[in-house]
Amino acid sequence: MAIIQNWLPPSRENWELIFTVWQLFPVVTVVQWVTTFYPMGKTSIESRFNIPGKWAWVTMEAPGFLTLLYCMYSLPKQLGVESLPWANWTMAGMFTIHYLYRAILSPLVLNPSMSPIHPLVWALAISFQLLNALSLGGWLAGYGPTTINDWSGRLYTIEAGIVIWGWGLLANMYHDDDLREIRRAAQRRAEKKAKEEGKPVENVEKVYMLPKNGLFYYVLYPHYLCEWIEWCGFWIVGGWACAPARTFVVNEIATMLPRALSGWDWYVEKFGREKVGKRKAIIPGLL
Ligand SMILES: NC(=O)c1ccc[n+]([C@@H]2O[C@H](COP(=O)([O-])OP(=O)(O)OC[C@H]3O[C@@H](n4cnc5c(N)ncnc54)[C@H](OP(=O)(O)O)[C@@H]3O)[C@@H](O)[C@H]2O)c1
User: Fold this and answer.
1) R_g of the chain, CA atoms, integer Å
2) Phi and psi torsions of 284, nearest 5°
3) Are the C-beta atoms of residues 26 and 250 closer than 8 Å to each other?
């Protein structure tokens, strides 16, 4: 059953159109190179339109994996594909695992606090999610490989891709958690101080410090770098011909690279060039 006729799940014609539009996404991100206006996270602004950080993350990120899973469920029936090969389901599972962590677990369970997000950024993020999910979902659920023969001879590459994806995800989680620990520690200190002085506990929601563990020693955005590695692993699983996985990697880099570079400027402005030291933004020793 289609939720939106010919769009969810997409007909082949619409899927091709979506994929073409999605490949042009880096053009939109050019704006990020010419302005520092990016109303979320460290650079969030005060606005009455702001969406609370945690709910913004849930609502802008969750539609991605839900859309992809819906395509996996509905499109094969529509196309008369009896069952999809295990490799298609493996990729759908990898995508779902990542976004269960990013869209549900991180904001609702793990993150101590998240800055509010302006609807403009929220709208761009949900567009990213929907276009990406339809592009990947269409490929995985009927317009890409549909029989196990389509994957033949690729077992070792698939295994290698899964290993790279897994390490990338774990490393992304590790560095995310290093940032969380800064706020958790600030909360513990604020509670201790409040107890000792008999005053109310100070708000630590906008406390920022220079993270130092793991790859933070070399770069300020290792969690971004590890996420790129993760999705490169995903692309390796899909293979060179998996243009939607390649487009996903390219589009992530297009949006996260300028964010990391302007984030480097933000750290220098906040903590000083000396404290930032030789650390680069995202690629150790390079960028
Ligand atoms: N932003 C993107 O375009 C994008 C795209 C795809 C995937 N992702 C992934 O999503 C995850 C989060 O991305 P993000 O852009 O929100 O990363 P981020 O700006 O580094 O923030 C991550 C979390 O850590 C907190 N935080 C950041 N720097 C801190 C510091 N120096 N001290 C204390 N707390 C700090 C943030 O709090 P505040 O919210 O209060 O700043 C936020 O809760 C990353 O793993 C990234 O790979 C991001």
Assistant:
1) 21
2) -50, 130
3) yes
Question: Over the stretch 94-129, which tens digit does the pLDDT of each residue have?
Answer: 999 999 999 999 999 999 999 999 999 999 999 999
Which parts of 104-221 fold into alpha helices (H)?
119-138, 155-197
Cα-Cα end-to-end distance for the chain:
48
Residues of the chain with pLDDT below 50 are none
Sequence-ordered list of residues with C-beta below 8 angstroms from that of 48, at least 6 positions apart, any chain: none
133 to 51, 61, 86, 238: CA distances (angstroms): 23, 11, 19, 15
The DSSP line for 247-259 is HHHHHHHHHHHHH
Distance (Å) from CA 58 to ligand 1 centroid: 14
What is the number of the ligand 1 atom nearest to the C-alpha of 175? 45
Q: Could you give phi then psi for residue 262, rounded to 5 degrees? A: -75, -25
What's the CA gap between 134 and 150, in Å, rounded? 21
pLDDT value, residue 197: 95
Which of 178-200 are b and which e, b meaning 16 or more Cβ less than 10 Å from the residue's Cβ? Answer: bbeebbeebbeebeeeeeeeeee
pTM: 0.96
In tens, the pLDDT along 61-94 reads 999 999 999 999 999 999 999 999 999 999 999 9
Residue list, ligand 1 pocket, CB within 6 Å: 41-42, 53, 102, 111, 113-115, 172, 176, 179, 182-183, 208-209, 211, 223-224, 227, 252, 255-256, 259
